[in-house]
Amino acid sequence: MYDKHLDGFLMAADCGSFSQAAQRLYISTNALIKQINLLESRLGVTLFVRSRQGIELTDAGRSIYRDAKRIIGISEQAVRAAKDIERLSGRSIRIGTSQLRPCKTLVDAWSTVSRRYQDISLNVVPFNDESLLAVLDALGEGIDVIAGIYPSTLWNNRCQALRLADLPLCCAMARNHPLAYKRRLTFDDLDGQTLIMIRRGDTSYIDELRDEIETNHPGIRIHSVPSYGTEVFNQVEALGGLMVSVQIWSELHPSLVTVPCEWRYTVPYGIVYPLKPAPIVERFVEAMRAAGPLFHND
To answer: Where is the HTH lysR-type domain (predicted)?
Structure first.
């Protein structure tokens, strides 16, 4: 992974002597000096000032010393990572986790069935929600599965999904909002309010709620956004509006509360996985399918 002559160079620099370094490397002094001379020739710089008192790094040598330490560290880390991949290959599921798609629910559910699948382990891989589409396009490479709610379009059929539950759509709002004290909300409660929703066309599940509001409850003002993220949650808290949400997001923003609503609208929650999954991913998905629903709705 790196020029092995660097080992001799680093040892000589640490010892301040070619002979002492050679002893620690179990080679002759002449062999070590030849290695250093060859390294200097390859690099085109003088690494050491030689004197009867010993050796001392030149300015160029000190620069090479610092970088060589870093290079060797990176190289060793890369080898360890490669060995870990080889060791876990074929039996490890890489679960993506993000702010809007935390993996805890899935990991907790897996712990209840994992005794029957001792050959499968889970690795958690963080990602940013802003890069979700890129992650979906590369499913099966760095990340195998993602748990969370998903749209009816499956992001233009970028992946497959295993439906594990139907989560009721709720409303999130600032803790000091006048509706925050209510146990459940009705459409009448929302009259005169601004409600943030995902734009039309992203998912039929949200569009059904939008159709209901636009047709039968015109007093509710809809504000459309292309996607949810930290900025949208902050906007709800700062402007005093409401947003369509789900209970599993209730802890994402400390200043918001999530209140159930008296309507029939839900959004699916489940596992998103590649169009062509590896055999181990297929086994994992089938195991979760057999485990049954994750939530029991009221």
So the answer is: 1-58
